Amino acid sequence: MNRLRALAAAPFVLALATHLLLLALWYDRLPDPLATHFTAGGGRPDGFTGLGTYAALSTSLLLTLGAGWTLLVRRSALWGAWATAGFAVALLDLLLRANAAATDAPDARFPLALLSLAAGVAGLAALAGLALTRLVPKPPPGTPDPVREPRLDLGAHELAGWSRATGSRATGALSAGFLLAGAAGLLLALFLGPWPYALIGLVGLVVGVPGLALSQVRVTVDRRGLTVTPSLVSRPRIRIPLDEVVSASVRDVDAFAEFGGWGYRTRPHRSGLVLRSGEALVVRRAGGWEFVVTVGDAATAAGLLNTLVTRD
Known about the structure:
single chain, alpha+beta, 5-stranded mixed beta sheet, 4-stranded antiparallel beta sheet, 8 helices, 11 strands
């Protein structure tokens, strides 16, 4: 896993180094402010950003993208990290080149054909990432062990319920970072023009809002089945009715090896809310599907579910 993260971070380190080097080499040739937004027709500038602001925003963008890919990357998606880094740095540096080649910012030109060039760089970078995937060993096959299916002693007319809060500080911090970046992007879009700040804002909000909501949850087991609800809001809520539960078990899971990271994850025939590695409640549903949620005292939750299913 350390090798995979290093390979995911590598293209963003290279991208940032290249970008900062070009900023330094072309600094005397760059106008201030820079032309940063262009018309779709002739590629003429219609939005401008201060040189210092642009340098800070472009650096923050590459660092944020790099941190996200490094933390959440899967072996099968390593090429995506390289493609993202390639496209981002190509676009940022082509914009610098357009400004450096102009006498003044209003004279800069950025035709749409340059987007094709950036896409080409992204494609070559994706091929490099795909080739480097061979350096990352495949996770060992087989079902993690041990698996336990406990039971609770419960009378025929006794009622019982179980509830426990669980969460991930790392997921919450990362989601809060995306949310702040999204809010900053939308704010800058109001004053500096929609591109690329509106895109940064939308991506930040789309990733940050649900991520922050699901970073702290409450897991409940009762006669209705299993319910997972965010601690701060009532939605999005995950519910598995008791009549859909076949059995419940508890086992240790590896968040990255089995699910490719933290958060709400899906895999063939299973899904889960994985906020950390370690003890997890595993619910087997009708049709063979599994739902996994990482939570402490999972044995009690599994035992209660199994007892309720048998009694029902």
